[in-house]
Amino acid sequence: MNDLATPTQSADAAICHGKDRRYFDLMAYIVSNAAAGEIMAVDNYCEMVPLIADTDAKIETAKQAFDETKHIRMLASLGRRLDFQVEARIVEPQWLHIRKHFSAAVARKDLAACLVIQDLMTETMAIVLYRILQRDTDPETADMAKRILADEEEHLGIGTRRLAAMLEADPESVQDSLVWAHHRVMPELFSMISTSCHSLCDELGVDCGGIGLDSIRTDIEAIRVEALDTYIETLDRVGFDVKVTTPLIAGMSSYGGLPSADLRLAGTGSCVGSTGCC
Predict the structure, then answer these.
(1) Helical H segments across 51-110, by residue range
(2) Digit-coded pLDDT (tens) for 39-58
(3) Residue 54: CATH number of its domain
(4) Residue 210: what are its φ and ψ, rounded to 5°?
């Protein structure tokens, strides 16, 4: 067992904290997945540094990696304080797949794709996760989520600023990088927004089918909607062409990505997915 892990939440401790066992099983699953994402982010930022020419930007990226190491420790500490297990290592295969795609972007010397994968896609999903952990959770979890969320929003801002400048200088290349990254990474991220897992539940000793998102007053569909809405907002903030992003967003319905309102498609007059197009 990892030295940061702790024993599974006991029934007595659960009662003491005012939550039931299902809540702490859910926290073990969510927090362990969050820790895995932070571990991957450390590797991503470190691998990306050699692609960056500007010294100040290199330092800024190294600081982002350091921030993620703090988050790993904070998540593990939360598990110890509330007495639920945190696997501070990557277990679910989706994280490993995203790491491989990121390394492929590095091998291509595609800094734009690296920024899209880590500072846009992954950070956007992290922001949604930590927002959720601020709602209807225990006070310690909510406080931790608030502090980590501030860092993740800063990281998203860094990526947005960098990509906007790159997009202005070379729009075609940067938008090609978005398309390349989107088709590889977004299905992996959205596949983790589900009621099942590949290996993590076994490692934690919890029943994935019995984990109740109702413990924090949400459900899978609500999380998917919020995640996609936030992703769309991020793409718009960078300034990507809607002619590029519209088919990407429309295609996400095939793996569970549905925005709260299909305003983008309606606004552009697109007939993606319609049989009545001419």
Answers:
(1) 55-82, 93-107
(2) 999 999 999 999 999 999 99
(3) 1.20.1260.10
(4) -100, -5
